[in-house]
Amino acid sequence: MAKNKTKFVCQECGYESAKWLGKCPGCDLWNTFIEEATVKGSSNQKKGISGGKPLSLGEIETSKGNRIDSGMSEFNRVLGGGIVPGSLVLVGGDPGIGKSTLLMQVSGILSMVGKTILYVSGEESPSQLKLRAERLFHENVNFKVLAETSIDIISQWVIELQPDILVIDSIQTVYNSEIISTPGSVSQVKDVTSTIMRLTKNSSMATFIIGHVTKQGAIAGPRILEHMVDTVLYFEGDKGIYRILRAVKNRFGSTNEIGVFEMRENGLNEILNPSEIFIRGSLKDAAGTVITASVEGTRPLLVEIQALISYTSFGQPRRVTTGVDYNRTSMLMAVLEKKAGLQLQSFDAYINVIGGLQLRETAVDLAVLCAVASSFKDKPMDSKTFVIGEVGLTGEIRGISQIEARINEGKKLGFNKVIIPQASLSLTKNIKGIDIIGISSVGEVMDFFR
Question: What are the residues facing 391 on neighbouring strands?
Fold first, then answer.
């Protein structure tokens, strides 16, 4: 009989220790060690993925281009063109954001075209799953649902049914009875994911795993979970109706693509032209409002940046940002003070990106700077003009990438003027039908607010 062994495991990074430690040496966090009892020599560790036989490259068969169309173009875009057979995909997001809804919709669509689906839920009963399916689909969808948390029983049904798509909702509820620790612990999550990965790689089945997230927004459990899977998707969004599906790891495509969805009573609806959504309802010629073009992956998006500059009532002015980097915004305001002469040290600054987007690229610098200057001077920018460009510490406007795609997106939505870096002007010679203005310094930007 196997001997029980006790160890202490960090619940954040998976670091193991023979004794309890206050601070984890792996992730430097405090009070994260929990005692776990495991069975030495788990049977799962004796099984491999390929049978342990080395293969030459000429013997290996590939399924190039054999992706499965999910029926949702936004979902296909984020995955890199569709679902890859034999892939293991992890979907994370805040509670109630729509992870289960998204995967049930995809499962229902695929079942209508003849795919075999096995939807395993450790959080809902079969009757609850049927009620959700009836809410999402107008016609009858037929796929198998299993309310189970034991990985042994799940594995038996996967081997028997041989599904094309397997959904595990959620990985933190599934457990292995051979490991004496609670479901969701580091040991359980690692072992269960390893078993699911072996089942997936030994077949042409595509597997989707739903993972809970921590208060900091990271997927709960050991970091190794994200290393084991092929693709990691995050479902993001505020308390409104818009949701963004973002790939942060993808072995089969780009990690910069996003998909935009709208949550409605009948489920998630795709937003095929997000630019119209993010700039819809903006006030005409309002001070502090500037439109810019950001690129997410291969997709250009027009987004609205708003700034509010108000006199502070305290000795220390506030700087509040939503959707843009706080430190970079502080840097841009310092450039405005130094190079444009705007006395902002006695004013509070509130910067917001409409629609809940997180803009990470530096090409939106000029738009943030213009929004601050517009609000401070109380002079609006033309509502038919959008701006793009990176701002340097010496006040220069630097060139950016994918300038043609950004300008064409604005032109398509009815904008007749764009302000871009002078360095990128030579790349726009073939663009007609829109007035393109090139600038090289922050001083030239201030001419639009005189």
Answer: 397
